[in-house]
């Protein structure tokens, strides 16, 4: 019999099987779900990056004598891809991550990819892993660009080679909390100091906070808040995100003067808060002010905008406004509505792949 010329009828689930990877989207937290492909480019010292390759996701080979393994010479970024209701895949402000990687590379004496190459590489990585971008509202594809010192350097020196690598993983919420985070102020350790690397996304900023974080979590806290190393009087940031306090019409966050990571979400939320009439101040914020604030929230690519419910400093515990009435709730939905294509992106933040 001659084949029918009418199109084959397919069920939605067959179509979905091709469109989506086999993931239980509802169960996603912030843990690695390996995807199919990663992007890799290498560049010798003194040269500039040229187009890399999309390779199957997997282990990489690196010299035991590489600067990343021996001296922690490396930077990372974090950004997300979103699937909209009309099935477009969008990424949020990738130019900002490219520029931040360039600033970090300058600080660590590394060669960074150009802004164009960075954005193109992110797009290629997302496109290659498109079926891992969760359905609308069921999570996001977290994209992790790395710039690492590869090659061999026994002495402390700039890396003879830099590797730019991007992998991705579908993720859900970073913190599983109902109304807000329970923070503990760390009065023993500091995350950054003046003249150090706190203001760039150096890999070395993160492992030193693990001990404090682990201890705090073991005592039932959600995260840890660091104080400035010079005076121990002002708040800085959490283990992996920025912090804001709210009092009346004023929203305040510590300034990015070297020890605070210039978060892309931090910058975007400041802009959105100004748009709805809040005064946003980037300035030193003392622990005393934190304890007197009406509301506290944190921002970051991974945490998005997350309310803080309590802060504990020594034996004092303060509770803050959370829920429907909280500014953080409003700002979070303003941001995620833009990211998910629910409201028009008038700011030109979203990039379609
Ligand atoms: C991000 O929000 O992208 C971060 O860098 C947090 C990460 C350390 C989990």
TrEMBL record:
Cofactor: pyridoxal 5'-phosphate
Protein name: Branched-chain-amino-acid aminotransferase
The reaction(s) this protein catalyses: L-leucine + 2-oxoglutarate = 4-methyl-2-oxopentanoate + L-glutamate; L-isoleucine + 2-oxoglutarate = (S)-3-methyl-2-oxopentanoate + L-glutamate; L-valine + 2-oxoglutarate = 3-methyl-2-oxobutanoate + L-glutamate
Documented EC number(s): 2.6.1.42
Presence of keyword Glycoprotein: no
InterPro entries given in the database record: Aminotrans_IV, Aminotrans_IV_CS, Aminotransferase-like, B_amino_transII, BCAT-like_C, BCAT-like_N, BCAT_family
UniProt keyword Transferase, yes or no: yes
UniProt KW keywords: Amino-acid biosynthesis, Aminotransferase, Branched-chain amino acid biosynthesis, Pyridoxal phosphate, Transferase
The family this protein is said to belong to: Belongs to the class-IV pyridoxal-phosphate-dependent aminotransferase family.
